[in-house]
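Regression report. Comparing outputs from two consecutive submissions.

Submission 1:
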Amino acid sequence: MEFVKIFFVNTALLITLSYLANLIYKHTVSYASEPVKRVSWVLLAIFAGWISTVFGYRLDENVIFDLRMVPLIISTLAYPQPLILIIIGVGTGLTRLTFGINEAAMVGVLNLSILGVVCAGLSFWVRRSAASVIAKGLAVLLVVNVVNTLNIALFGVIPAQEYITEIMPVTFPAGLVLSVLFALIIRDFQLDLMRTGQIVRANELLSEQTEELHKNKIVLEERAKQLMLASQFKSEFLANMSHELRTPLNSIINLSQIIEEGDNALSVDELAEYGGIIHRSGEDLLSLINDILDLSKVEAGKLDIVNEDLNISEIPDLLLQQFSVVAKQKQLDFLVSLGTEVPGVIFTDPQRVQQILRNLLSNAFKFTMTGGVSLNITVVERQEGPALRKWVAFEVQDSGIGIPPEKHDLIFEAFEQADTNVSRKYGGTGLGLSISNDLARLLGGFITLHSREGQGSLFSLYLPLEVQENLSS
């Protein structure tokens, strides 16, 4: 009967210890990392086994009966990992030496070490079995108590016959029943810890979702701002576009009406002058429509690039013919130079290259009142990542009004202009640079800008030279 009392005392102590451990876990260990949690569990299980021995039943000066194997049983269900269970078993056994080193103590170390190995073996079954938690718990309880009883009978200092006939009939069923009772209580604690962990994880997930929603809100607000600006830019663009469309159309309509109603009152010179104005207005209108169509094709990804040989040596003469009249009218110098290192032919889309250069030169002449405009064609090397690549550079330099540094990126965007007042003063839709920038990318190159307000601008078109070299090799 004394064994049963001591076992109840052991159970009460272990329950108290578990309750305290539960409180400590909730407020400290539950926030720690997984390795810290496992180390804490190992230390707690070993300490619980030692406490059980402290208040165990002393059969004589050296022999102690207790429930020190119960923390090992619970660990088998809570942390079914072989290494952890072996450490707990050996560690709990070694605590027996704190009560004196003797034959009974050594048997105690051996007994718990064997139980740790047995539980390590059971952990493989616990992890892989589809049985319920209760079935697993009862199986582990029964196996551990049976092995513990056999260990005491085989290796204990008490004679086997005395232990089997007088002590085991009391200690085995009492230990089994109290182990079951304690395991059920611990299981309840464990479920509470699991619920607490789930609540913590749910709160963390809710916090992450709240933060994500906040970030999404900021992104949406930024996009709404961008949409508002885009709408504003498009409204300004449409207003400017309507003006650009009306100007040539009005010229065509008014002059054609004058010609129609003039009968024979108009001289040949007047008719020729009016016809020239109508022709130029038609070309301006066609150019404007082509720009809009090119922009829509680029945005839809349907603009075709037709690569073929481009004779660079012909470009200076072509551009001089096109812009020499404008330069003479505005009394500007216009120079075109071709470097000796530039190859005669490169493989690209000639039509698109000339379109880009016309756009760049048109802007240069439009915004230059005094001084001049120049086009310099050279071969340069630029670092692209780890490689040094060769490029054909078309540099358009002017001495015009210039562009502030903070608006360098803005002028390459469709529907956006550095200053709408500039557009009203000098004319144009602002689509030329956007289209040119997109065309340069489609050709495998890019456009750079160096400019300061009031100090002119330098637009450079870079086209890859390696393509032609690879084809000719």
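Submission 2:
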Amino acid sequence: MALMPVTESMFLIAESREHPMHVGGLQLFVPPGDPHEFAELIHKKFTSENVHELFRKRPGRPVNVMGSLAWSREPEIDFEYHVRRVVLPAPGRIRELFQFISLNHGTPLDRYRPMWELQIIEGLADGRIAVYTKVHHSLVDGVSALKLMLNTFTTDPDDRNGVATWDPSLFHDKKRPEASSTLAKITGGLSFGRKLAGDVVDFVPAVTRLSVRALRHEGAQLPLRAPRTMFNVPIGGARRFAAESWSISRMSAVAKTYDVKLNDIVLAMCAGALRSYLIDQEALPDAPLVAMVPVSLRKPGEDKESGNSVSAILCNLGTDEADPLARLQRITDSSSRGKEMMREFNTLESLAFGAVALLPLLFAPVPGFVANTPPPFNVIISNVPGRKEDLYWNGGKLDGIYPASIVADGMALNITVASNGDSLNFGLIGCRRSVPHLQRILTHLENALEELEKATSSHVMLL
């Protein structure tokens, strides 16, 4: 059995029935011909016996609430369980699709099997085929999962060589020495123990160093300074999913006018939408909301299957500002200071900063902790880069890719964005009980972008 790094086992330890720790995604395809035949092809390709070792991993027994310290290998994949075909009920609207995703995303993955599932969804009235996948965060982070999936696509609509996400041909494995003997396993365990102890020893001074460096960056957003909101409450196990796409060209035009990054416009849209939503709920705090924005620590060329390698910066969303331009300025200032601070950190310090921000969430299941502790941040907003070209899989055009991430006690809403072609696709996941009428945030996102566009017109006229 392969020993499990702390960055992977922590997601198993934190998991419960109310807090499943998997990331997911919805892909929509325009089939090249008959939708049913295209669904058949997807099923055939995704039930191939060629499965990479990453997708054969499962937690080693005994499996319990505290997770496991080692990975086991599943020699035979039960495709009938892992790959499923479903048909939406009539009338097959996007509404029915989102209801299906909402119900399935709240169900934990089986720890006695490799922790991933795929659903091929037919029955959409417009003839598109949907594919919903979910994979446990202990296996891969959201960025890795998206890159693995994008590797199966091509820019050629006539290419018919597409394979499943877990096909070994998509991976570039490094040779790893086998530790098959009992002595080797014991030695490996001792080595893991030394490495873990070393990580802990190095981690403590890293936290101290980053605290000193963070204080030098006046204006940078630090943990535990966010206001309490309706999102920062204990949550139940049921989920609600909503998604929508916006044109990158449209958003880039606004970004160009103000000489800011596209991601600043994403954050400004989210800030405006959250402000309007909270006003509707009569729950807007006086202090500005704070977003945790994940950043990848993976270096260029690093293996896609290398597991989890992420940290985060905290960003002031300026939700106390009624003026959309003043709000955008607050966001860009906070984001740039956070990035400057992160650039000074080494990898261990970056991980430590992310751990400090996330640490209160690990204690969230403790009774009374969420209610009596300041939230480290209010919402997660993550932007996962995709591909700028139109993409195809065996002739089917990728018409949308929508992430569905994780929520937890004290963090009832998660907004994750992914791109394909000229589309920026927002995937919202929320606690069904704590975030009522989640889909209304989509309307507020559009309104927030329109506000920025109107302000842009006025800005251009003044110039």
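Expected: both submissions complete independently.
Actual: both completed, but the second showed a warning that disappeared on reload.
Relevant detail on submission 2: The radius of gyration is 22 Å.
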